[in-house]
Amino acid sequence: MKNRFSSYDIVCSTTELQKLIGMRVNNVYDIDNKTYLIRLQRSEEKSVLLLESGNRFHITNFEWPKNVSPSGFSMKMRKHLKNKRLESLTQMGTDRIVDLQFGTGEAAYHIILELYDRGNIVLTDHEMIILNVLRPHTEGDKTKFAVREIYPQNRARENTVSTLDNLRTILEGAKVGDPLKKVLMPHLDYGPALIEHVLLKHGFTNVSKIGKTFDITNDINELFVALQEAEVIMENAKKEPSKGYIIQKKEERPSTDPNVDKEYFYSNQEFHPFLFSQHSSQPFQEFDTFNLAVDEFYSTLEAQKIELRALHQEREAMKKLENIKKDHDTRLSALEKAQETDKQKAELITRNQQLVDDAILAIQSAVASQLSWTDIDTLVKDAIARGDPVATHIKQLKLETNHISLYLTDPYTDSDSEDSESDSENRKETLPPATVDIDLALSAFANARRYYDLKRSAAKKQQKTIESQGKALKSAEKKTKQTLKEVQAITNINKARKVYWFEKFFWFISSENYLIIAGRDQQQNELIVKRYMKANDIYVHADIHGASSIIIKNPSGLPVPPKTLNEAGTMAICYSVAWEAKVVTNAYWVLGEQVSKTAPTGEYLTTGSFMIRGKKNFLPPSHLILGLSFLFRLEDGYIDKHNGERKVVANDDAASLADSEMSRDEVEVEILDESDDNKDEAIDNPNELQHTSVNDDDVNKDNADCHIREGTEEGNDDNEELLKDKDNEEGSDSSDDDQKFPDTQIRIQHSEGTKIKVVAEPVVKFENKDENEEKIVYLGDNKPVVIKSKQKQKIKEGKAASQKNVIAPYNALNNYKFRVKLTPGTGRRGKAARTAVSMFLRDRTTTQREKDLLRAVKDEQLARNLPGKVKLSAPRLQALHK
């Protein structure tokens, strides 16, 4: 599978991206340590340029997941490139190096993108002095790629096959038998696909070899014409944008039903700006531009990997089924053959009864004479040498088992010429000769009967095998169908699951339906306070060193009920050092407007540090008890059916809540499949969670300014730069994905005592009010959804599209179907999470759709929200362990 640009691709992309010239840099983001996004803007026109070190560069329309905290390299690019125009975008020579210049004169900066070998991205000033480099290294003895070094501009090479004489020199220097394409590749910067295309077009196949199928004297002129055509194609690519093509491979999906039409899956293999000769017979997709093709190829790459893994699993399941069928057929064939062999041996003994009895008597007499086995063997050989008619049929003595092997032939053969034709019709079937083991303790008749008994025994086994084969194959086919179904279900889950903005934090939904989020480290603590916390929101913090910053989203501005405050306090304490130390302590809350980033002295606090002004409202001590559960998200098509069923329950709403609930109907919900294959946020190391601390040494706890310092005492340059940039970014980059959810309203309603057919959790709705409206609906516990008077009809459709696991205070999960209790302990959180899921899967009330969704959850997703070492508690947990 192709995964990086060739020189021809670079030429085509460079030509197409000339339309970006004159656009200004709005911001810079990083997807991972080698992939960066540059957001460009000109009036109302916007574009996002993606740069991946060593692989690609193109405009992207796909929404890539950006890192929560920008890397140091991103920050450096933001510092120097922000608000500067893209002045030029050129290829260095014909090499795979691209130079992007931002700004002019002494204010100019260059981004050098290297797309060969291990790749690199270099930031330089107008004099090409390196300001930052993604991969510092040294080439050869002198050329250094490091900060304050000068980037070598003359390193880009040119094509060396420019004349016929140059080409002849290259070919004559090659070894006899070397492939023609391999010889040309190091001297041409067209890329392997374009070279292969022109070679095929001029009659040179992939098997053309120097001195064998390719003659230098006779074929060099035609080869030079082919290479000139490649040069023409390259020059045309520099003049106008090229179309795009994705070359695909047709894969057949396995099926257990031969009557069902075959299903096919088309996997993307390569992307090109030209439909080359070698690809003309393969399936392909055509795009208006090369950039569109590349963006489509890479944006669907993860989904393709999921599909291919599923295809592999399906084929493995079918292979197991075929092996079972093959094994059954082999066993039946072996039993049939054994029957036939035993029957023939019995018949041969019967037809040679006198000869067999004589052989048995001769060996028995020798044994009775107390001759040694060696002497008996010598005796038999001497008899064979004399031509004894009995001895000549003895092939082997097996005296250790009291057996001999006789070579027996059918005495009734077709060679009897004197037999008449009528006599031949009455003759018995001619048997082929065979070597037969004879038991010396039995007579010839008894030996024949023994072989007949073996034949009957094999016949019985065959009958039993045939009878059991139907059941076994039916069971295997059923299991294979179930496996194929599960694989497809999990594949659909992994492809379709959406990851929402709050999932990058610790989060849960309180009993009164408030969304509560918490930072995983000091950078996230900084982010949720600066970007997501509004003046009416509640800030909660544990009164202990090393706690997360907790935000209760409160869009209504009404007082938050005490139960939600206590649950948020429990979360704050559990995500602190109190969990490991098993210490019960207090938490407190303040309004969002009381939290500031500036100290009274004017000092700008480091990452994750805040100043709290005014009174802190302390909460009662909380027990260190969390719960693990699951919520399920409805498909978008079913969201409108549940509009208005949930809203935040504030103190002023509590009295009217009972009056607003209508009669409860039975709910039937069919649960679909969907999950997340997002590995970027996986936490494998329990220590990866970084805690925060509170500095209250010089502050009165009841009525004073409180300085909260989280993480390290001093931030590094990148962190300080990050904070300054984020202040600027809030106003300038309102189009960021995270801004799509300014406020979140949640309402959970449960009904009691209603029997349901299909278990489903009630809907939790997140609703965005801006023009890019996006709705998210979740299912929570096994209680039916409360339906208002206009929706009293039974809900027959409500497909769950994906699942999300809630680490939350245990009392917030009272009405949830799937839940286990977590307390501080010694168990690994990954193992504890897997045990919990295993218990949910074994529950008899768990539907098949729920099982599919639960199986699709990755281990890292399960464990990443647990606070540390845990003890798992649940009914029938011991039975599961046993």
From TrEMBL:
It comes from the Eukaryota. Its main location: cytoplasm. It is found in: Cytoplasm; Nucleus. GO terms for molecular function: ribosomal large subunit binding; tRNA binding. Residues 410-430, 671-749 are annotated as: Disordered. The keyword GTP-binding does not apply. Residues 698-712 have a biased composition (Basic and acidic residues). Keywords: Coiled coil, Cytoplasm, Nucleus. One of its GO terms (cellular component) is nucleus. Residues 504-614 form the NFACT RNA-binding domain. It holds the Pfam family NFACT_N. InterPro entries: NFACT-C (IPR021846), NFACT_RNA-bd (IPR008532), RQC_Subunit_NEMF (IPR051608). Residues 413-423 have a biased composition (Acidic residues). Residues 806-872 form the NFACT protein C-terminal domain. One of its GO terms (biological process) is ribosome-associated ubiquitin-dependent protein catabolic process. Residues 301-338 form a coiled coil. Belongs to the NEMF family. NCBIfam families: RqcH_arch (NF041120). This is Nuclear export mediator factor NEMF homolog. The lineage of its organism: Eukaryota, Metazoa, Ecdysozoa, Arthropoda, Hexapoda.
